[in-house]
């Protein structure tokens, strides 16, 4: 029995991290059980603003038709001037078309919301298809004058590849009800479809477009920045589970990992800044969740390094048990996901491998979080879309566009 003491002591960091992660999960689940979507009737006019850049025109058409089927007052599409296919699609529908010559999503969003007059503005990615009833559902929380932003429930659109199913598996939506119940403050209203009061957007426009981090203008992370500015303005940000939207998830490993690396960089930049500056502490439950996320993510690869060092020094029992438990735990969750969607069994080990890869990708994101590059929108030469430099920000005025045409 005494010989087990060194092994037990060596296992303390791993057991402590696993217990901490499990405890946080149980807290979020317990708090989230009290969540109910808002069902009040709200008649505030709602506009849709969508930046369009190198989108699949068939998917863009499908998305447009889903928005037009809802009760929205106006739709503004800010289309890159080189995207001739999407320009042609948009001009065949009763929507307003603005053009821009820069691949800058933040500028395009600002140009769009400045062109509308509705009280509420839905910022929608150009590949997002709305389910019936979204407009009414996202309006409902705004019956409370303290609510400034609303997040929607998001899922994969017609998934086929393992990477699309992985995006669905790891979308991280399970905790949003808890953040809405306890404090009504979200860290991020995910940008595929998020709705804001236009007054909040107008007031935050300059701070949104001109955000910098360690001397570089921020290009990615537009949704987290708008959420932060909404909270700083004194409003609440909430989740509305019955507002369902679907979008095309990355279908290849390169696209999926590129998107997740971008998200990892944004995670560290936003969370560490929020904790260091103290802004997040105004919302106790959000601060708890933010701190728990940082501890859990950094703790994983710190424990991983620790276990590798143990194994390298001949103490293989604890690393072997920890690795076996970690894989088994993830396999159990993957099996549940695979069974619910009637997927082939080989998806289980694939999802486990992807899960572990994403955990380690967090470290890459931390080490490269200053970099500002879109990794999922590529130029014709195959290079990632470059980030705009802060030395040349400028207003994007709309160019003359063909007037809205009725659907032929």
Chain-wise SSE layout:
Layout: H1 5-32, E1 46-52, H2 57-68, E2 74-80, H3 84-90, E3 96-100, H4 105-114, E4 120-124, E5 128-130, H5 134-139, E6 147-156, H6 162-169, H7 176-181, E7 193-197, H8 198-209, E8 212-213, E9 216-217, H9 222-232, E10 236-247, H10 253-277, H11 284-312, H12 317-340, H13 347-367
Parallel strand pairs: 1-2, 1-4, 2-3, 6-10
Antiparallel strand pairs: 4-7, 5-10, 6-7, 8-9
Helix pairs in contact: 1-11, 1-12, 2-3, 4-8, 8-9, 10-11, 10-13, 11-12, 11-13, 12-13
Q: How would you describe this structure to a colleague?
A:
This protein has 408 residues and is of the alpha/beta class. The protein has a domain at 36-251: Spore Coat Polysaccharide Biosynthesis Protein SpsA, Chain A. It has 13 helices and ten strands. The strands form two sheets. The protein has an eight-stranded mixed β-sheet with strand order 3-2-1-4-7-6-10-5, with helices on both faces. A hairpin with a 2-residue loop joins strand 8 (212-213) and strand 9. Residues 379-384 and 386-408 have low confidence and may be disordered.
Uncertain spans: 379-384, 386-408
The largest pleated sheet is described as: 8 strands, mixed
Number of strands: 10
Q: Which shape, going by the Cα principal axes? A: globular
Work out the helix count: 13
Beta-strand content bin = 5-15%
Mean pLDDT: 89
CATH fold description of the domain at 36-251: Spore Coat Polysaccharide Biosynthesis Protein SpsA, Chain A
End-to-end C-alpha gap:
82 Å
CATH architecture of the domain at 36-251: Alpha-Beta Complex
Helix content: 40-55%
Order of helices and strands: HEHEHEHEEHEHHEHEEHEHHHH
Q: What is the CATH first-level class name of the domain at 36-251?
A: Alpha Beta
* Gyration radius over CA: 22 Å
- What spatial order of strands do you see in the largest sheet? 3-2-1-4-7-6-10-5
CATH homologous superfamily identity of the domain at 36-251: Spore Coat Polysaccharide Biosynthesis Protein SpsA, Chain A
The class by helix and strand makeup works out as alpha/beta
